[in-house]
Amino acid sequence: MSVVVTVGGQWGDEGKGKVVDVLSADVDWVVRHQGGNNAGHTIMIGDKSTIFHLLPSGLLYEHTRCLIGNGVVIDPNVIVEEIEALEQAGHSITPERLAISGQASMIMPYHCQLDGLEEERTGGRLGTTKRGIGPCYADKINRVGLRYWDLFDEALFKEKVEKNVEQKNLILTRLYDKEPLNAKAVMEQVQDSLARLKPHVCDGAGVLKQALQENKKILFEGAQGALLDIDFGTYPYVTSSNTMAGGSLTGSGLPMSAVDRIIAIVKAFQTRVGSGPFPTEETGEIGNTLRHGGPVGEFGATTGRPRRCGWLDLALLRYVVRNSGIQGIAMTKLDVLSVVDEIKVGRAYNVDGVRYETFNGDANLLDRVEVEYDSFPSWDEDISGVRNFEDLPQTAKDYVAAIEKGAGCPVVMISVGPARDQIIIREKLF
Ligand code: GDP
Ligand code: IMO
Ligand code: MG
Questions:
Q1: C-alpha of residue 44 to centroid of ligand 1, in Å
Q2: Does the Cβ of 333 fall within 6 Å of ligand 1?
Q3: Crossing angle of helices 183-197 and 154-170, rounded to 10°
Q4: Of the bound ligands, which one is closest to the alpha carbon of residue 268?
Q5: 277-335 pLDDT, tens per residue?
Q6: pTM of the prediction?
Q7: Is 8 close to ligand 2, i.e. is its CB under 6 Å away?
Q8: 409 secondary structure, DSSP code
């Protein structure tokens, strides 16, 4: 396989960082193509955990090269902080190792401010991460945003910042009753970081094309999850980018014909941070048991918020598999299910007299669907040391088989703990 696209199969935090890190052992390039530092991808090596927000998770190997594609929104101060932390840990992050597409969008301090103010004004309507993601993508779509290419024309950059600040000041003062910003001060807040990043800025799609021509092994790291996709997610409770498989094409310049395999990373149960419908949510004791079930616990890697927990929802998973053309599943956190006696799985929805085995995309229905469940017995054994599928308890094997049947695609790897080696590989992807 030379090009594999990974997609978060639920509402995020499925363990993408962990799976991408495992797969990166065998790849040449890891590519991020959407989202920004709303993402929090955790990698555990031994007992040391690293959380990536913007940098592709493959960077912990010496041999990998990474690309941040045009579809990503990059906060310059955050990425520089991440680069410096890695450099302090002994990794060298040269322009050769980290390419940043010139067409990527720049998150400016006012984007974060506006994100926070709108959440405050609406009483936390969406529960965003307040990292400026929505306002930055809005500027991109409004065709006023700053791109990394703008760094190569100082006068143009200055003019664009001034025009943006002028417009944001109208919003800040008239809508939110706040003090206006000063364009020079805004530029000063980011100038050191931008100078550090400039040597990395390049023709990202060109870099990718070259890697494809050289037959390199390329892994696409999805951020967020397919149910947070701006078009296909549980709108309006979504993020502002295309998190489904298609985003990897528009967010990097990857030709459609180059994709060899599309894999969804799917937690063995389901979680969500922030607002929005969650038909299989367990709000009581069982939810709490799942939240505290693993060695790490279900708390946001970016914001620290407790994650809402519930059961795997096949009506939603089938929808994701269909829309992203998923050909295999990497299942994570199977070890956590040891903490419950009974595992439930949402099999179908009933609403307004209609039964749906696959969600139909109308997110307005999700608040009032009645979920039909299947029930499976759990297992008492600690499975975090298992490395071969055959060695799993029969009940765990049966559960995996039921998800394969329900989703209509094979489970190609199973993660049984946060650490790099806690993995069962059923099919090698590279
Ligand atoms: P991501 O955003 O999809 O990369 O996921 P996060 O890093 O936000 O959250 C996943 C959490 O689960 C992290 O703390 C991981 O270290 C942890 N994790 C990943 N895979 C497994 C697993 O198979 N079992 C357990 N118990 N924890 C896991
Ligand atoms: P990773 O990549 C989980 C959620 C937020 C909020 C909604 C919109 O770690 O899986 P935004 O700040 O993007 O405008 O917030 O999306 N959200 C995530 N939830 N994991 C993430 O990333 C998320 N990124 C955004 O909680 O509900
Ligand atoms: Mg996360």
A1: 9
A2: yes
A3: 140
A4: 1
A5: 999 999 999 999 999 998 889 998 888 899 999 999 999 999 999 999 999 999 999 99
A6: 0.97
A7: yes
A8: S
